[in-house]
Amino acid sequence: SFALAFNLSAYETVNASLTDISGRSRVILQNHILPPGYHRLQVDLTGFNAGLYACRLSTLHSSCSRLLIIQ
User: Fold this and answer.
1) H helix or E strand, kind and range, residue 17
2) Any bridge partners for residue 4, and if so which?
3) Residue 60: other Cβ atoms inside 10 A
């Protein structure tokens, strides 16, 4: 498992997803309006095949992506 931590300065709709290397969405981690402050999403990777995945987090005002290697 892994944790995705982020901080919001205002109420925001947060979209977070995990996609495989071919761009197929594997799981939606978050798709809700969250309040300001620190947030942490714990993600269980049980059942995922080994490989390279992209974790994407986006709001109306920003976005980021991180690569994740599952062995």
Assistant:
1) strand 12-20
2) 41
3) 10
